[in-house]
């Protein structure tokens, strides 16, 4: 009799335990479902926010490009001689003034970068260092397209701006660096490789002189000779 009652109690406890576990499993499943829905909503909202930010960035960039007076500037190296590098600059504008004089201004690049401060000004030309600029008149080649030829040293860095002068106004593009890869004579840079035997003992060394970028195909850029100096650790 006692055994029967004990079995009944055990059975009741098992049934209660099973029912409780099923309830907890169902409850956890609902909680997990709600969490999953919230995560999906948060992910969707984050995706929409990122899309809105990208769209706003694109619109701002497009608006900035539309407001820029000088649409594009390209430079081409025509020749290199003892007198310097001869370049042609081509400038495409988004708008222009009829009868305006367009001038390319070039000068050696200063060591300190002050262009950001000047380019941030709302208008006008800088009053300092005006004598450093060299003017090269640009000729009209097509509607809103001008070209100018100029010479400079292939061993220096330069910056440029484009000026438009008319009776009513003077406009200037931001100051930018003249791309050095277009005209500069690149320095030769040594690259070394070593050879060793099976014991790790150095048995050979090779030094190659290479350009950091492909130089223009002109005889003036072709190396005539190279000198290798080897110094001991004591400086001898």
In summary, what is this structure?
The protein has 236 residues and is α+β, with helices and mostly antiparallel strands.
Q: How are the SSEs ordered, and which strands pair?
A:
Elements: H1 2-67, E1 70-81, E2 84-93, E3 101-108, H2 115-119, E4 134-137, E5 139-142, E6 145-152, E7 158-165, E8 170-172, E9 176-177, H3 180-183, E10 189-196, E11 202-210
Antiparallel strand pairs: 1-2, 2-6, 3-4, 3-7, 5-6, 7-8, 7-9, 10-11
Please give a structural write-up.
The protein is of the alpha+beta class. The chain has three domains: 1-67; 69-183, Immunoglobulins (Immunoglobulin-like); 189-221, no CATH class. The protein has three helices and eleven strands, in the order H-E-E-E-H-E-E-E-E-E-E-H-E-E. The strands form three sheets. Strands 3, 4, 7, 8 and 9 form a five-stranded antiparallel sheet that branches. Strands 1-2-6-5 form a four-stranded antiparallel sheet, with no helix packed on it. It starts with a helix and ends in a 26-residue tail after the last strand. The relative contact order is 0.11.
- Kindly identify the CATH topology of the largest domain: Immunoglobulin-like
What count of helical segments does DSSP give? 3
By secondary-structure content and strand pairing, the structural class works out as alpha+beta
Largest pleated sheet? 5 strands, antiparallel
- What is the averaged pLDDT score? 77
Straight-line distance between termini? 110 Å
- Total domain modules: 3
Which outline best applies? elongated
CATH level 1 class label of the largest domain: Mainly Beta
Please name the CATH architecture of the largest domain: Sandwich
Radius of gyration: 36 Å
CATH superfamily of the largest domain: Immunoglobulins
- Share in β-strands: 25-35%
């Amino acid at each position: 009799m006692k055994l029967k009652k004990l079995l009944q109690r055990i059975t009741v406890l098992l049934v209660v335990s099973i029912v409780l576990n099923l309830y907890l499993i169902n409850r956890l499943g609902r909680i997990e479902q709600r969490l999953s829905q919230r995560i999906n909503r948060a992910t969707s909202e984050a995706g929409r926010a990122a899309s809105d930010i990208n769209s706003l960035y694109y619109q701002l960039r497009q608006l900035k490009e539309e407001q820029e007076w000088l649409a594009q500037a390209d430079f081409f190296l025509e020749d290199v001689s003892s007198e310097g590098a001869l370049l042609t600059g081509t400038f495409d504008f988004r708008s222009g003034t009829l009868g305006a004089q367009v001038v390319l201004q070039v000068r050696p690049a200063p060591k300190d970068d002050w262009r950001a401060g000047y380019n941030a000004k709302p208008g006008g030309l800088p009053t300092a260092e005006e004598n450093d600029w060299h003017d090269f008149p640009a000729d009209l080649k097509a509607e809103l397209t001008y070209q100018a030829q100029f010479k400079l040293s292939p061993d220096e860095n330069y910056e440029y701006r484009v000026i438009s002068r008319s009776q009513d106004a003077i406009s200037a593009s931001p100051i930018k660096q003249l791309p050095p890869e277009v005209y500069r004579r690149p320095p030769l840079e040594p690259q070394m490789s070593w050879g060793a035997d099976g014991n790790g003992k150095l048995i050979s060394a090779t030094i190659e002189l290479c350009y950091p970028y492909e130089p223009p195909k002109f005889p003036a850029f072709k190396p005539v000779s190279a000198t290798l100096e080897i110094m001991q650790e004591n400086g001898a």
